Amino acid sequence: MLYCIVFSSIVNVCVCVCVCVCVVKCPDGRIRLYCKGADTVIYQRLSPNSKHKETTQEALDGFANETLRTLCLCYKDISAAEYAAWAQKHKEASVAMTDRDQALDRVSELIETNLMLIGATAIEDKLQDGVPETIAKLAKANIKIWVLTGDKKETAVNIGYSCELLTDGMKIHYGEDVNGKLSDRMTRRRNELRRDRNKKVTEPFFTEPGKNALIITGGWLNEILCEKKKKRRRLRLRRLGKRQPPSNPQDGQPMDDWEKELRQRDFVDMACECSAVICCRVTPKQKANVVSLVKRYKKAVTLSIGDGANDVNMIKTADIGVGISGQEGMQAVMSSDYAFAQFRYLQRLLLVHGRWSYIRMCKFLRYFFYKNFAFTLVHFWFSFFNGYSAQTAYEDWFITLYNVLYSSLPVLLVGLLDQDVNDKLSLRFPKLYLPGQKGSLFNYKNFFISLFHGIFTSLIIFFIPYGAFLQTMGQDGEAPSDYQSFAVVTASSLIITVNLQISLDTSYWTFVNCFAVLGSIAIYFGVMFDIQSAGIHVLFPSAFTFTGVASNALRQPYLWLTIILTVGISLLPVICIQFLSKTIWPSVGDKVQKNKKKYELEEEEEEKRRKPPAFQRGGRSRRSAYAFSHSRGYADLIASGRSIRQKPRARPELRESIREVPQAENI
What we know:
This protein is 51% helix and 12% strand. It is built from 26 helices and 14 strands.
């Protein structure tokens, strides 16, 4: 709440908690305090002699029904002595070494009493472009959307309908109904779980068909979650043993912390059964508490998005914080992980970039495990034939450069550039987001598949060359079945296999990907011929011991056939499995990929239809990038009394409306 203390000239400016105070001296034994804030806060601090409370409340209700944001204005005349005493207390609280915030709150409460009502203001807060469409797409992606706002209940309800979060077919449950259902569940649980405290009640809260929605005010939220000060103090005394729990509770309220936790869990379960949840008139702390409850009891990944300083706690509590840079300052942006100018950009963040990032990371991890299992386990099979002498199956320099040069670039490009479908199709089919929610692309099952795939590849890469080298003779009559030639053939088979494997896993091909795959294989052969040449052996005889092995072994057609056979047998099962899975058991992504060309043509035709004629393109106006657009909205509905759910008529350009009730005398 913001309040100002006024004199004729500014003599002092200070900050009290989150409240701005300005002191101005009037020429005639008088100090006046002006306050503005929400009606629920102001009305609690009004004097019994304050006038026009009923008239102002009616005006506030009308404003709220038209989705306008409201504030109440009030004042209070105080004496110089009273102000001096309060200022001293404020100074002492501001330098307190412990509990400074609580001390400042208590001091503020001392002066914010017996206020006189001036009136109320209302200002238009129009939804941004694309909010209904964004919410609809996120809902199709099975993303639960909760609205936590400080607006009045009527304003929150109308905003819910305007952004299509609420529909006419939904059954709305308010705070008293929710509290009653939770109390009934608590009473029934006490009767059923007297012997078994670990038994869970799994029946749903809403058995009637159709969609359900929760609309809860901040007061009811404290009641439901047992967060009122008196209830918290009662539970704390019971926990410390200073107060005994009631012997026969009949109100369905929790008796201890364990039952409080069960009640909070029940609330989260009930909310997750609903298609929409709106918490209105909630404080920043309550917003953060709701987010923490979802994280605690649902083990879900939470994302909070807001544009004001009152959203900072919520943004910091969530796993992912998103700030909207707009008219309400930069506090939310500075506290967030991601920031953009419009709410509608959230659908690209989640359905496009978030999904692509998840797919890329899963492919990267699966391939990383596979290629290293295939590389390492060859040493394990070789140990059975070298007398467990710790001799390596590859040349030392190959082991050093395998993950650095020979197999790193293709998978890095997949992790950076790969996309199964383009951005337009990702937005058109929100269900493509579901595999990420289920974690189906990388889990224990996928890990063990990568493990067994690596084991299979390592067996093929070792035993086929090993069998080919037994009792063989080259074209020159010499036997190529030496250890060094075997190491070259095995390493060559491995490099070609793992680089072609990442090619099979790549969905989005570019010149860079082709260059990376072919370049990695070319780099391997180029480096191998260089480090196994006679020239480098002369310079460093102890470091490069495979002199002439590559040129000698790879001029044998028999060994090239061995490499081709090894690579073919390693990749053929993968090709068959991918073909069968996409043909017989296709996923949503596979179906979209199959008809990608068809959908892309449909998107192009749709864009051509939406594109205005050439003579109309020059008159397009630029839209603001603020969090709340400046185009005309609902402000002209203030005096009409019509509901937002009715079809609006043509309205004049009007951005802001202030209604003020008759002021008190001598103001």
